[in-house]
Amino acid sequence: MSEYDISFFSGVLTGVILSFILLYLYIRNLIRKVMSELDRHIDQVKDKLMPVFIERVNGQLYCYGETDKQFICQGVNMAEIKRAFETRYPDMTAYLASGEKELIEELRNQLKELNEAGISK
């Protein structure tokens, strides 16, 4: 291998390495921008989210605040719970934070049906 070949291959190798470094820096900068946007969005909405848990007693659903365990509303199905919650907290959005696994799955299915029917906010 001649001196010219070694110089050529070392130049190509240097170019490839520099390309990967620049690509890495570009992707890292892009990820930082996306993370910054996500943080900003989370800061905007986190005060409008309320974690709740729902329990069923004698066929009636009772909704409580997850953090303070305070009663929020009740109903026989998710449509009634949703209406009562939105009446009491019109600027808030509830999300199911905990509860019985089977009940949560049932309530999520009811919410999905409500959203598909166009009854969501």
Descriptive report:
This protein is of the alpha+beta class and 121 residues long. The protein has a domain at 49-116. It is 58% helix and 21% strand. The protein has three helices and four strands; from the N terminus they run αβββαβα. It has helices spanning 3-45, 78-88, 101-116, and strands spanning 49-57, 60-65, 71-75, 93-98. The chain has a four-stranded mixed β-sheet, covered by helices on one side. It is rod-shaped, with a radius of gyration of 27 Å. It starts with a helix and ends in a 5-residue tail after the last helix.
Helical proportion, percent range: 55-70%
Topology, number of strands? 4
**How many alpha or pi helices?**
3
* Main structural class: alpha+beta
Ends distance:
72 Å
Widest β-sheet, arrangement of strands: 3-2-1-4
Radius of gyration: 27 Å
Low-pLDDT regions: none
Shape: rod-shaped
Note the run of SSEs as H and E: HEEEHEH
Specify the biggest β-sheet.
4 strands, mixed
Overall pLDDT, averaged? 87
Strand content: 15-25%
Brief synopsis:
Helices cover 58% and strands 21% of the residues.
Please give the structural blueprint.
Elements: H1 3-45, E1 49-57, E2 60-65, E3 71-75, H2 78-88, E4 93-98, H3 101-116
Parallel strand pairs: 1-4
Antiparallel strand pairs: 1-2, 2-3
Which properties best describe this structure?
121 residues, alpha+beta, four-stranded mixed β-sheet, 58% helix
